[in-house]
Give the backbone structure.
Amino acid sequence: IQEAPVFQLLFDMLKETHLARNKFTKTEKYILGGRIEESLLGALLAVIEAGYAKKEWKLPHLDHARTHIECAKILFRLAWELRLMPEKQYLAFAEHLQRASQMLGGWKRSI
């Protein structure tokens, strides 16, 4: 599963988020930054679970991953609107999340 493009994309986003979070204000680094990382980690774990689940059990994990991704989108938007990250960085994260969501949708349709 670690070779799957969606896994790699989410893993890379988790690394980038961890680095970006260090530029947040002290309070937001742990509150909002922590929630963003939790959402991405939740999506990554759901992808791992889907990868190892039997075919008939994959769909709930994929739906769970997409829910985490949607939550991360909202939290990234909030971080951008609070001026905790530059617009360029926000747009890059939003694009990656959109791509991950599309990959999960494709995986779901293939089942």
